[in-house]
Amino acid sequence: MSEGSDFDEEEMAAEEEEKQEGGEGEAEEEEKLPENSLTQDMIPECLSLLCKIGNGLAHAYVRLDAHERELTDIELLKNFIHVRYVDVSGNLLKDLSPLNNLTHLLSLQANKNNLATAKLDSLPYLQIADFSGNKITTTEGIEHPMLTKLSLNSNLITEISSLSPKTLSNLHTLELRGNKLESTRGLYLPNLKNLYLAGNLLKQVEDLDKLESLTTLHLRDNQIDKLDGFPPSLKKLQYINFRGNNITDLKEITKLVNLPFLRALVMNDNPCLEEDGYRIEILIILRRLERLDKEEYSEEERAEAEDIYEQRRQEELMKGEEGENEDD
Question: pTM of this prediction?
């Protein structure tokens, strides 16, 4: 894994998104929001990107940007069946059902609204969907066969359910930061590569054995104290972020030795880092690790870790021989 990899960029994005609150504790200013519908007069300034459609003899605008307009209703959108890119973020929407008519939709930004669900009809070409910063309580109703990236950050989701591995076979990135998840159960997505679960209520990792393609696992700011739940089937996992958890014992790191491609680990803000020489101790356990807490291991650190490892191995061998001699 090369220095300056995508992991740093993902970390920065994670930190930015974790600043969102997720709607909890907000005053129910929903006494009665004044209706503000998308109107025909607004449409010309929202539409852009003229493209060929159908057999290529006709043209239509395929991008609609209606973000931050305090909209409560987008019923008019059901008539724009050729639109492929929709941005209705930063509004007051509770209902996205008019989008069910947009069967050519490729990208949907519906973050920062008042949605209680992400459920839509199956949209055959939808690839990217962002429902972050709403009031969504469930992962049910997401059945888009071409979906590659799904963002549900900063919602009120308590458990993962109904994400079908058959229907969501193309999903490679799932973002669930800043929810109320207490368990990682319910993830049976063998093609998933990137999983972001920072800022939840997780106390342990479990039921991840089906995530055979996973390369990035982000678990920052949870309540994890034990590192059980990392089976050998996570054979492609390269990066794990445990920052801001409750790991007190460095020996828990031994439970990661069966991850052959683990190259980067983030452990900042865990109690176990108060132990002297923790960088070297972790490298002794995970000898293929390249980076800890975003800092590359130096050749000097590698040599020191190798020497200590060999010394301890020899001591164990000697103890074993002494024990055998005593038995004789």
Answer: 0.89
What are the tens digits of pLDDT across the range 16-34?
554 444 444 444 455 577 8
Residues 145, 129: Cα–Cα separation, whole Å? 12
In this structure, are residues 198 and 18 in contact, taking their beta carbons and an 8 Å threshold? yes
Distance between CA atoms of residues 50 and 59, nearest Å: 6
> What DSSP assignment string belongs to 56-82?
TTEEEEEEEE--SS--SB-GGGGG-TT
- Maximum pairwise Cα distance, the chain: 96
- Which contiguous run of DSSP H or E holds residue 128? strand 128-130
Rounded to 5 degrees, φ, ψ at 265 are -135, 135
**Which residues does 27 contact at the CB level (< 8 Å), separation at least 6?**
none
Predicted confidence band of residue 325 (pLDDT cuts 50, 70, 90): low
3-state secondary structure of 35: coil
Per the CB < 8 A criterion, the answer to whether 279 and 304 are in contact is no
Pairwise CA distance, residues 223 & 3, whole Å: 29
Residue 132 backbone dihedrals phi, psi, to 5 degrees: -65, 155
pLDDT band (50, 70, 90) for residue 55: confident
| Total Cβ atoms within 10 A of residue 306 | 13
End-to-end CA distance of the chain: 50
Calpha distance 229→238 (Å, rounded): 16
Q: Is 256 helix (H, G, I), strand (E, B) or coil?
A: helix
256, two tokens = 């990661």
